[in-house]
């Protein structure tokens, strides 16, 4: 018998579900309640599962939430490039050898990316 039980939908890792919900929230016109996320996400997620995932994402500071009626409405704290930048900063902050990490990062940049980084760091030149 395989890893899946008969009659059950495929189980996706939490990170994949979070990414799917984050993408949905980033494309939305505004904050969404768990009910609205459940209706739009499809894929067999229950309302309770959506609430759990949204709460976990809020705890991780990926989402803001504001009261709306008897529920909360959730929105991303930043856009996709902002999340990528947060991940990069997080990795750098975890390291005691920041200079070495930054030097290796810079060595791996293409000429175009290095030029762009110089322009961003020194906009007056």
Number of helices: 6
Secondary structure tally: strands: 2
Task: Write the CATH homologous superfamily of the largest domain.
Answer: Winged helix-like DNA-binding domain superfamily/Winged helix DNA-binding domain
Q: Mind telling me which CATH architecture of the largest domain this is?
A: Orthogonal Bundle
The outline comes out as elongated
- CATH topology (level 3) name of the largest domain: Arc Repressor Mutant, subunit A
Q: What's the domain count?
A: 2
Distance between the termini: 65 Å
Task: Look at the structure and give the mean pLDDT.
Answer: 85
Structural class: mainly alpha
The proportion of residues forming helix, as a percent range, comes to 55-70%
The profile of the biggest β sheet is: 2 strands, antiparallel
> What is the percentage of strand-forming residues?
5-15%
CA radius of gyration: 20 Å
């Amino acid at each position: 018998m395989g890893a899946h039980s008969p009659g059950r939908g495929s189980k996706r890792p939490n990170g994949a579900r979070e990414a799917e919900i984050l993408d949905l929230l980033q494309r939305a016109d505004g904050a969404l309640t768990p009910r609205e996320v459940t209706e739009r996400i499809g894929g067999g997620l229950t309302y309770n599962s959506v609430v759990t995932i949204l709460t976990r994402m809020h705890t991780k500071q990926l989402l803001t939430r504001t009261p709306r009626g008897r529920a909360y409405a959730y929105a991303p704290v930043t856009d996709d490039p902002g999340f990528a930048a947060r991940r990069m900063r997080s990795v750098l902050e975890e390291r005691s050898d920041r200079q070495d990490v930054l030097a290796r990062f810079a060595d791996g940049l293409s000429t175009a990316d290095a030029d762009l980084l110089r322009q961003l760091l020194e906009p007056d030149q």
